[in-house]
Amino acid sequence: MPRTSFPVSVEPSVLLWARTSIGLSQEEAVTKAKVLLDDILEWESGNAAPTFVHLKRMSSAYKRSTATLMLPAVPKRAKPPVDLRTLPNQHSHPLTTKTLKAIRRAERVQAVTVELAESMGVALKPSLPSLVAATDPEAAAGVLRRSLLTGETNPRPLRDKQKMYECWRTRAERLGVLVVQATLDRHECRAFALANDLAPLVLVNSVEYPAPRSFSLIHELAHLALRASALCDMEEPDTAAFPASSVEVFCNHVAGAVLVPTDEMMALPQMKSHGGTWSDSELDDMAIEFGVSKEVMLRRLLIHGATTKDYYEAKRQEWREKHRDMKDYIPHVPEGKKPLNRNGLTFSTLVAQAQRGEVISLREAADFLGTKPKHMKSFESYLAAARLQR
User: Fold this and answer.
1) How many CA atoms lie within 13 A of 100 on its CB side?
2) Which of 2, 70, 162, 190 is the most exposed place for a label (fewest CB within 10 A)?
3) Which of 114, 105, 104, 108 has the alpha carbon at shortest distance from 350?
4) By C-alpha distance, which of 293, 159, 288 is closest to 219?
């Protein structure tokens, strides 16, 4: 047992990395770790060493194990997603601690997936198609949509945006993509993608409403099909101001075309006569057929010459003002179902199988899923039901 009142040998750069990797200032670390500012300054400069008690407090505040804080050097990590957020105010400040934690947890889910699969002899073979950004986005969307619908006829319109999102999430997981969710500030980040040969992952912001989540999911699948990681807000970027975000324009176009195929849109009765302007009720009626938002619907109409750029921009600004103070989407979810909602069916199934096969303990399984051991029995029931529906 360590002697808690004596200094512990630590590498100052590791303490600095652990704090800054989740966006904590020294002042914030003081509050969360319940230590003195002078102490943090001394520890990070190497002029003094913390006690084991201090190390435990920093472990809790920085969300790192004490073993990690005692490493001899900063650990190597996967290349973080490229920041493709396009609003100027989002480039004027670093990512918040909440978003950084979500990225780190997503990386852990990827790593655990690969480790558990290897331990149990499960082959991970993602079958997401490859796309090239120079390709016509309508053609690229056709490739991606056909992959998602392999073995199915075109899905019958559900007229329920939540069910449509769940269908797209299931289809993405069938292609070997992990689809997880986390609560983020939707004004900062709507989704991100982490490319990986064995366990590609999309994280979708769970406080978004179902239609935007469907769009975010397909948008990030387009990034993964480009074999790239990305952090996105889904805004239509100014490619003159942000040249790299031409990829975002491509992924936005692909997402819209996957969700609202041209031939199905043109077959809608509303398309028989139009004058370039569309009422909200008309757009709602068309959008519900595809489980998308009015904005996505109007964007598809613009792309196919059924409205004007000025009208699209005016409506977009109108909706933005209307929804500026819109509350987050926070439905009630039973405690036992939360791990499934958060982690998706693929990762949840893998962890449950590893626990039943005694590859990992019940406590480890609960930790991987972000729940408590007492909720695991209820979780297993929801998981079994979800697997039957798949």
Assistant:
1) 14
2) 2
3) 114
4) 293
pLDDT digits (tens, 9 = 90+) for 320-330: 888 887 787 88
Which region, left, alpha or beta, applies to residue 238 given φ > 0 means left and ψ of -120 to 50 means alpha? beta
Residue 42 C-alpha from the chain's centroid: 37
Helical spans, DSSP H, in 121-259? 137-148, 161-174, 210-225, 246-259
CB neighbourhood size of 320 (10 A): 11
Degrees to nearest 5, angle at CA 304 with 299 and 305: 95
Q: Give the CATH fold of the 12-69 domain.
A: 434 Repressor (Amino-terminal Domain) (1.10.260)
Q: Would you call 228 exposed, middle or buried from its count of C-beta atoms within 10 A (0-12, 13-18, 19+)?
A: middle
150: tokens are 């392999």
Angle between helices 338-356 and 362-369 (to 10 degrees): 150
pTM: 0.85
Joined tokens for residue 286: 């068309």
The domain locations on the chain are 12-69, 125-322, 334-389
